[in-house]
Specification:
190 residues; alpha/beta; four-stranded parallel beta sheet; 7 helices
């Protein structure tokens, strides 16, 4: 039976990316088949590039592609899947957030038994570096984080159901687009 590994790669702008490359390399050396969930560069928000600088985004994508191509030069068992953000849920999310005005209310939002609200709240605290956030002033960002979070969840579930990965790696189970993967993996004992 082949060993399939899924890695939701961190943005190459973060120092943890270099450590993840080492993990990928070790998995490839064990003859694992490694699939990376990557960014397509079309997000409306990135926690590693909060101001959405095109230069930073370009640098990030370039560093990612160079690193993957370098690894592919030695190991053929590596593939990438660009995570696609699905904006079809926007009306549903707007409705869920309509009455939310405080962080503690946001944290209570669960969908599919996943604490999406907590992961979005945690991401907001990281972004604004405070717990005192007036959500009504940042509804577009809150909506975007929810959209990306739910998209990440469904993307991951679809990949897992199609490929049956034996293990997966995520860097941070606290923020909006990692937490749903952590919770789903916990449910499935991955």
């Amino acid at each position: 039976m082949e060993n399939k590994v899924l890695i939701k790669i961190s943005p190459p702008l973060w120092p943890i990316f270099d450590i993840e490359l080492e993990i990928i390399k070790k998995e490839l050396e064990k003859k694992s088949f490694v699939t990376l969930i990557t960014c397509d560069g079309k997000k409306k928000f990135c926690i590693a590039n909060e101001k959405m600088s095109k230069i930073k985004c370009s640098f990030c994508k370039q560093k990612l592609n160079k690193s993957i191509n370098f690894l592919k030069g030695f190991h053929k068992n590596i593939s990438t899947k660009n995570e696609i953000i699905n904006y079809e849920n926007k009306k549903f999310i707007k409705k869920k957030l309509k009455k939310i005005s405080r962080l503690d209310e946001l944290k209570k939002i669960k969908l599919y038994n996943i604490d999406f609200g907590t992961s979005v709240a945690s991401s907001l605290v990281t972004t604004f570096k405070t717990n005192n956030i007036k959500l009504r002033n940042h509804l577009d960002l809150v909506e975007e984080l929810f959209i990306q979070s739910i998209s990440s969840y469904f993307f991951f579930v679809k990949l897992q159901n199609k490929n049956f990965f034996s293990k997966y790696y995520i860097f941070n189970g606290r923020i909006y687009n990692y937490r749903p993967l952590l919770r789903y993996g916990q449910k499935k004992n991955l």
